[in-house]
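User: New here, any thoughts?
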Amino acid sequence: MRRHAAFVPLLALPAFLYLTAPLIGLFSRTELDQIRPLICCHEVKAALAVTAVTSTAAAVLIVLLGTPLAYLLAYADFQGKRLVDTIVDIPLVLPPAVAGVALFFTFGRNGMLGHQFAPRFTIPFTMAAVVMAQVFVSAPLYIKQARVGFLNVPPQLVAASRTLGASSTRTFLKITLPLASHGLIAGLVLAWARSIGEFGATLLFAGNMVGITQTMSLAIYTAFEAQQRLSAVVVMSGILVAVCFAVIIITKAVLESARPHEAHRATLG
């Protein structure tokens, strides 16, 4: 193995350079003196605000809706469990355009469910539609990671809590949830990052209206398509790259800190 070790970096270098070159190309076009004026312009501030509000709302909904489902998939044994797990995974591989069309035909004015609300209000092309699109494409990331977090909880600790007289709810809040928190946090961070970068489903289901449904990704697309404000494209893209970089660092730190718990579980086992 050692005789061939010297060739491994050479073989790995092309892939690393290919993944790095676009980032270098992006930041090489960034002019620091343009960052502040562009961030302060109306379109960018509006896109930042919409992105922050919708992605945060999506993250809250993902936790509220996804945690019980992740818990169910981790511990329950029921007929059709594999089918449910497969359906949860579908948005991960579904083309974003298809996701947008599916949401529109379900919650649109004439959609399967949307027509019931149509006399009072409509969902498409509103900020609520942005949140719904983000939840649809991002929730599976949280659910899968949260499920792993629940499965990593030592079952003997849960059994001991129940033996000592704690209710199932108290056991979940005091034992299961804290021990699974690393997986839940990692899943939430990944889902939140995915929500920030969502584009296709949002464009088709929510539209691209400044200050209402235009997120950072849509603002980048609009500015790039116009071919008139490439400097704004570079700055907004740089902001999203920086956010994604921070998300990856945070996620890695969370997962690294979870390793001692896994080692402790292995010792108990």
In short: Confidence is low (pLDDT under 50) at residues 262-269.
